[in-house]
Automatic annotation (TrEMBL):
Annotated keywords: DNA damage, DNA repair, DNA-binding, FAD, Flavoprotein, Lyase
Species per Swiss-Prot/TrEMBL record: Methylobacterium symbioticum
Record-given protein name: Deoxyribodipyrimidine photo-lyase
Keyword DNA repair set for record: yes
Classification via InterPro entries: Crypto/Photolyase_FAD-like_sf (IPR036134), Crypto/Photolyase_N_sf (IPR036155), DNA_photolyase_N (IPR006050), Photolyase_Class-2 (IPR052219), Rossmann-like_a/b/a_fold (IPR014729)
GO terms, biological process: photoreactive repair
GO molecular function ontology, one term from the record: DNA binding
Gene3D superfamilies: 1.25.40.80, DNA Cyclobutane Dipyrimidine Photolyase, subunit A, domain 3, HUPs
UniProt cross-references to Pfam families, sorted A to Z: DNA_photolyase
Enzyme category, top tier: lyase
Enzyme Commission number(s) from the entry: 4.1.99.3
C-alpha cells in the first residue's frame, strides 16, 4: 500500500536537516488523522530518520481570517480539528495549533524540523502559502496530494473544456490511484518533545467563542465536523442512499445524497476512501456506483482543474468563457420581469416559493441539493440587473451560507451557471445562448414534499420559517 509517486512533489530539493528534532507536517487541506497520504509519508520519513512527527495547524483569525469565512464555517472546521487532534494523539503524533497563517506556523516550526511535509490544495490562497513556505524554509520540503483521487496535473496539463474531455483522461488512470492506504505505525512518539499547542482544540466551542469573526451566519446542527462524523455519513449513505442513487440523485426529496461535500471541502474524509467504499458496496447496482463516482471524481476534479489552470477564477471576466460573456452582453438590456436586490435574495423574498425554500435550506442549514443549486443559480442570473452583478451575487451568497462554500466546486459551479464547461443552446431573452433552466425542471421531483422537508430542517435548527414562508412575495 505504497503512496503513489504521482502524488508526491519535491518543493525544495535538499537533504533532511541532521540536527532536526522531528518531521513536521502542515495540516492544512487534509484535516484528518487517517487515510491521509501526506501524514503517512511524514510518518514513513520520520521512522526512517528515527524521529517523531509533529503536525501543525495555523488558525486564521480577526483581520487575517480566511476570506469570506464566518462562524458557520469556523465551527465546522474546529469540530473537525478537535477530532483530528484526538486521532493524532492516539497515533503518537504531536499537534501544535496557533493563531497564525499556515505559512507562518510552518516556517516557524520548520526551524527545528529535519524536513517538512505539506498537503495540497488548488485555491490561489493555498498556492500563495506554499510559495511563501518554499521561499523561507531551507530544509527538504515534500508535498503530497490527498484532496483528489487523481492529481490534477497527472490527469491533464491544461484547462479542460468540459467533463466530456476530462472524463476519459481520468478513467484511463484512476485505477492507479484508487488503492487503499494503511496507517503506518509511529515508531517514535512525540510526547517527549515539550511542544505545546497555544490553542486547546479539545473544546472547539470555546475556541470559536474566543475568535474575532463574522457571527451573522451562525453554526448549524444539521452537520457536525470531523472525520468520525464523515465516516458515519458515508456508512449511512452506503446502507440507505447508494442503492437507487442513479435514478434518485436528482430528486431532493428522495434523500439519496451522501451529504459528504462539507467533509470533502474541509479535508475531513478522503475521496479515495469514499470511492473504494462505493466500489465495494454490494447492495448497489453498477449504474448507481458509476453515477456516484462520476460526481465524486469526474465533476469534482473538473472543478479542481478549472481553479488550478484559471487565473482569477473568482472573476466573471476570467472564469466565464468568451462566447458566454458575448451572448450575455448582447442580452444585458433585455426586459427582466422580476428583479430582486441581493438582500431580497438572501432573505428568500421572491415570487417563487420553491426558490425561496432552496434559499432557506442554504441559509439556515448550510446545504442545498445539487439539482436545486443549478436552478437557484440560473434564477439569480435571470433576476439580477446584469450578468456581472448576477455572477457576483451568486458567488457571495454561495460562499456566505454553504458549509462547502469557498471551494473549487463553488467557483466552478457558479461559473457554470454563466456558461463554463457548457455549449451554446437555443437563444432566449436575458440568457442569449447560455443554458436556461425553467420552472418546468421542478416537475422532475416532488417540489411540495421538498418544501415540507425544508420547513422541518429549519425548525430543527431552531429557526422555523414563517407560516407563509413558502409563498413570500417581494414587498
Amino acid at each position: 500500500m505504497a503512496i503513489q509517486g504521482g502524488r508526491i512533489r519535491v518543493l525544495r530539493e535538499a537533504e533532511p536537516r541532521p540536527e532536526g528534532a522531528y518531521v513536521l507536517y502542515l495540516l492544512q487541506q487534509a484535516n484528518r488523522a487517517h487515510y491521509n497520504p501526506a501524514l503517512e509519508l511524514a510518518i514513513e520519513e520520520a521512522n526512517r530518520l528515527g524521529l517523531p512527527v509533529v503536525a501543525c495547524f495555523g488558525l486564521l483569525d480577526g483581520a487575517n481570517g480566511f476570506p469570506e469565512a464566518n462562524a458557520r464555517h469556523y465551527a465546522f472546521l474546529l469540530q473537525g480539528l478537535a477530532d483530528a487532534a484526538a486521532g493524532l494523539a492516539k497515533r503518537g503524533v504531536g499537534f501544535v495549533m496557533r493563531k497564525a497563517s499556515p505559512a507562518e506556523i510552518a516556517i516557524d516550526l520548520a526551524r527545528d524540523a529535519a524536513l517538512l511535509v505539506l498537503d495540497r490544495g488548488y485555491l490561489a490562497i493555498q498556492k500563495r502559502w506554499y510559495r511563501e513556505i518554499a521561499r523561507a524554509v531551507d530544509t527538504r520540503i515534500l508535498q503530497v496530494e490527498g484532496d483528489v483521487v487523481v492529481p490534477v496535473e497527472a490527469a491533464s496539463a491544461k484547462h479542460e473544456h468540459a467533463a466530456r474531455t476530462l472524463r476519459p483522461k481520468l478513467h484511463r488512470i484512476w485505477d492507479d490511484y484508487l488503492e487503499p492506504l494503511s496507517g503506518r505505525r509511529v515508531k517514535h512518539r512525540a510526547d517527549g518533545l515539550g511542544l505545546s499547542s497555544a490553542i486547546d482544540i479539545s473544546d472547539p466551542e470555546a475556541v470559536l467563542a474566543g475568535m474575532t469573526l463574522d457571527r451573522s451566519v451562525p453554526p448549524v446542527t444539521r452537520f457536525r465536523g470531523g472525520e468520525s462524523a464523515a465516516r458515519a455519513r458515508l456508512k449511512a449513505f452506503l446502507a440507505d442512499g447508494l442503492a437507487g442513487y442513479g435514478g434518485d440523485r436528482n430528486r431532493p426529496e428522495a434523500g439519496a445524497a451522501s451529504h459528504l461535500s462539507p467533509y470533502l471541502h474541509f479535508g475531513q474524509i478522503s475521496p479515495v476512501e469514499i470511492a473504494l467504499a462505493v466500489r465495494a458496496a454490494k447492495a448497489a447496482a453498477d449504474t448507481d456506483r458509476a453515477s456516484y463516482l462520476e460526481e465524486l471524481i469526474v465533476r469534482r476534479e473538473l472543478a479542481m482543474n478549472h481553479v488550478h489552470y484559471t487565473e482569477r477564477y473568482e472573476s466573471y471576466a476570467h472564469a466565464v468563457p468568451e462566447w458566454a460573456r458575448k451572448t450575455l452582453a448582447e442580452h444585458a438590456d433585455d426586459p427582466r420581469p422580476h428583479r430582486y436586490s441581493e438582500a431580497d435574495l438572501a432573505a428568500g423574498r421572491t415570487h417563487d416559493p420553491y426558490w425561496n425554500a432552496a434559499q432557506a435550506e442554504m441559509r439556515e442549514t448550510g446545504y442545498m441539493h445539487n439539482h436545486l443549486r443549478m436552478y437557484w443559480g440560473k434564477k439569480i442570473l435571470e433576476w439580477s440587473p446584469s450578468p456581472e452583478a448576477g455572477f457576483a451575487r451568486t458567488l457571495r451568497l454561495n460562499n456566505r451560507y454553504f458549509l462547502d462554500g469557498r471551494d473549487a466546486n463553488s467557483f466552478t459551479n457558479v461559473a457554470w451557471v454563466y456558461g463554463l464547461h457548457d455549449r451554446p443552446w437555443a437563444r432566449r431573452k436575458v440568457f442569449g445562448t447560455v443554458r436556461y433552466q425553467s420552472e418546468n425542471s421542478l416537475r422532475k421531483f416532488d417540489a411540495k414534499a421538498y418544501v415540507k422537508a425544508v420547513e422541518r430542517l429549519c425548525a430543527a435548527e431552531g429557526r422555523p420559517l414563517p407560516q407563509d414562508a413558502s409563498v413570500l412575495q417581494r414587498p
